[in-house]
Amino acid sequence: MREAPELERLMGMELYLTASRGLGGRIRSRLEDFLVEEELASGLVAELRPGRPEGAREEGRGIGGRGSFLLCVLVKSGFDTLEAVQRLARRLCLPEGLVSFAGLKDARAVTAQFVAVRGLRPERLKDLDLPGVELRPVAFTAEPLSPAVLIANRFRVVVRAIELPEGAVEHELAATLSGLEELGGLLNFYGHQRFGTARPITHLVGRELLRGNVREAVELYLAYVGPGESAAAREARSYLAETGDLRGFLRLLPRGFYYERLMTEHLLKRPRDYYGALRRLPLRLRRLFV
Q: What does pTM read for this prediction?
C-alpha cells in the first residue's frame, strides 16, 4: 500500500488501499465536471435533466400523492445543500425548518437531490427565479425526508489534464480495478466530504465546541487557512488571524464564502457574540461539526 499525502493524513487516512500510482490530472475544473444524482430507497432517482424522476408515478392530473409535504427535485450548482436550502426558504418566505432532505451534496458540482417542503403548493414554483437553483415538483407525501431513505448517489466525474499517454492510462485503470477486486471492494471511509476538501476543518471546529470553546471555534472557522484554498482566500484568512480586523476581512474575502460572511456580519453588529455568530450557521452544519 502507498502512503497517503499530507492532506489525507490530516483526516486520519494514512494509506491508500491499492498500490497503483493513479492517473494524476484534475477533477472539478468546471462545475459540470462533477455530476451527482440521488437515489432513494423507494427507487426514485433525482435526475439532472428535466422530467419526472425515475420511478415516479403520475396519479390523475397534475401532482399525485397525498400529504402535507411537496416532494421536489432540487437541482443546484455552485452551492452546497445547506446554502441552497437557506436561499430557497428565504425566496419562498418559509421557515428553513420546513424544508427536509436526505443527504448533503457538494458545492463544487452540479447535483440533483430530493427535498420535501411542508405546506408548499406546486403553483408557487412557476415564477421561482433563483440563480443556480431549480426546483421541480414530483408528488405530495405524508413524511419529511431523512438520511434513512437515501440509498445511493450516482456520480459522473470528468478527469482533465491527465499527463500520462493513453496506453498508460488504461494500464493504471486496470491495475487499480484489479487491486480493488482482489480486496473485495472499496472501503467506505470518512474523508474529504466529511472534513472538508480544500480546508479539512469540520472536526477541528467540533472539537472546540465539545470543549466549550465557542469563541475559539468561531475564530477557527473564519481564520484557519486550508492547504487547498485559493490564494485570495488564504490572504483573507491570514489577514484576519494577524489583525482581527473583521471589516478588512470582509473586503478581502472572495465571492462565494457565504457562511463566513454571515458570521462576520453578525460579529460586526454584535461584537463578542460568538454564540450568535455560530447560530447563523445551519443547524445541520453545526451538528456535522460535532
A: 0.77
